[in-house]
Amino acid sequence: MLVVKTELGALFVSRQAAITILLVLGLAAAFAYAVRLSYFGATDITNAFAYQTSVVAAQRDSELLEVEQFDRRASQAQLRPYETLLASDLQRIDAFADTEAERAPYFAFPATEQGYEALTADLERRQDLGKDRFEATVRGNRHSRDLSNALFAFVALLFASVVGRLRRTIEEGRSLVERLQRAFISRRPEIPGVDLGSVLLSATRGSNVGGDTHDAFALDGRSAMFLVADVSGKGIEAAVDTALIKYTIRTLFSVDSDPGSILARFSRMYDASAQDPETFVVLFLAVLDLADGTVRYASAGHEPAWAMIGQEVVVLPPTGSIVNAELPTDFKTRELHLQPGDALVIATDGLTESRDARGQQLGASGVSIWLSELSGSAQTMADAIVRRLRRRSSRIADDLAILVIRFVPGPRRAALVAPAEQAVGAAAPP
């Protein structure tokens, strides 16, 4: 009997050991699989995203090179920097390509107009391939998440430690447009003599992405460029357009400095590259002289901008039509002068067209009243506008970009920016 019990005990112990080993192996497998999802899955998404952005950059730079070569008839020396950019883009496409079909098309410099047409067609096909690859990667990660959740049901502790990272990876896949747009959103720069505030909001629930964008860029030691734009459409196409706008405008400043002329050039380029003739862009472009406060600006059908000059709020109406294939490309440049402490406020139509509970729009005059009641730093003012908007409207129904540019040259900067919180948002919105 003792022998039987001993054998049964040994069998029990061996079974417990086997179960323990299986659990440990299950834990290890679940952990390894979670690591694979969290890190390698994110790498797959990142590489697919990098491939798409490389194709977009190649499309942009090929269009710029074609304009310089045939429209402006630039010399070979002038074309060389554009050729270098395009060659670099094609190399990046090869670096992130997964299949032979995704590799960069052959392109020789200098090219004929037929060569540019062939390159454009080839890049459009690769853009479709890149989009399919990205979506397939996201779907693959979603299926993997479902499997990993089943494993985590048996290993609760491991689930608690890993699921957060896994969900972040999946959310990155779900927010394709957000990642694409954010890749082209520059960090807000430090521009001497300028106090800058900005807001970028999406009307889509669960997303931080829309078709609105803004940019601030120091052109040289004396001047800086500021841009606010609203792109028609949604999704990846709108995100690609915001990238095209921002970097095309920056590039055009290398050959021109007049806002109206730059908008005219951009309009022609956008017309040439637009896939859908019904797409359009609404934008405001300003150049600030950092020494004397002179502002030269032009706007393409943009919502009114506002100049806060002393105690007065001045509305700056559009200087041209929206950017669209069927509309004129004549944009006038206007000028105004900012004294230290004065500011420009630029916003897309998500602000002026917002509605209260009675359905009444805020309008440009309503914004003017708000601005007359606000003070403080540029960012404090931008945030206060959003707070008032949220109180006035039940929800933000349209994408919104706001850029506040306060002119604060030299030693007066600290004094003008410091009283940031004193009166902001104190008055009730209209």
**CATH fold title of the largest domain:** Phosphatase 2c, domain 1
Radius of gyration: 28 Å
CATH superfamily of the largest domain: PPM-type phosphatase domain
Helix content: 40-55%
What is the averaged pLDDT score? Answer: 78
Gross CATH architecture of the largest domain: 4-Layer Sandwich
Number of helices: 11
Question: How would you describe the shape?
Answer: globular
Beginning-to-end CA distance, first to last residue = 93 Å
Which structural class matches the secondary elements?
alpha+beta
Short description:
The chain has helices spanning 2-71, 76-96, 113-152, 156-174, 176-183, 235-252, 259-273, 349-352, 363-372, 378-392, 413-417; strands spanning 194-201, 212-218, 223-231, 281-289, 294-300, 305-309, 312-316, 334-337, 343-347, 400-407. With 430 residues, it is an alpha+beta fold.
